[in-house]
Design a protein that fits this description.
7 helices, globular, about 45% helix, alpha/beta, seven-stranded parallel beta sheet
Length: about 250
Amino acid sequence: MSAGIEGKVVVITGASSGLGEAAARHLAEHGARVVLGARRTQRLEAIADEIVEDGGEALAVPTDVTERQQVQDLVDAAVDAFGRIDVMLNNAGVMPLSPLDRLNVDEWDQMIDVNVKGVLYGIAAALPYMKEQESGHIINVSSDAGHDVHAGSAVYAATKHAVRALSDGLRQEATPYGLRTTIISPGAVESELPDTISEGDVAEKTDALYDNHAVSADSFARAVAFAIEQPEDVDVNEILYRPTTQNL
């Protein structure tokens, strides 16, 4: 157990695989009570059941982050079950990379809906509870693409730059209430993100990057735990990390 994590109520979006699943399992192992949101109900419930079987506390709530009411229902379920919300981990994301001239406008809309509006909906759901408690921690997942832009990643990078801008604005506005905010910006980490790429040539290139360089999703889980377990008067504002071998 970790003194800074044990007993905290942590809501996680995108919790049915990859980074969100790894964070849920890791935090539960350290005594957190985790509330898991994602669209894949069967997979989500299986993860929650496994956490409970291992002695942890977990609740699965089917959630599509593009629907504001569903995100609100996720956070409300956490408060109904455990009496409070200590951490909101806005992790859900998609990455259908493509050059702009392919005009994959539907995919642009999807990235904006999930990567930006999904984060905003998470903030909107959690912030009133945290203000009332005068404590809480909102962790938003950006990316190394939120720091750098490369050809073929313009829209995805724009959404992740937006997450960083929103998070820093939130940080400044939340200080009167004693809230903490953290941005976590991973590089290539094992997840299903590359599976969302529809363009064959882009997918091939991205798969090669991940095959050669991606690190375990446990790296993300440890970064989340590090931010949470700090003393309440310490606010880790941003963590940017990449695999040692990744040069872009």
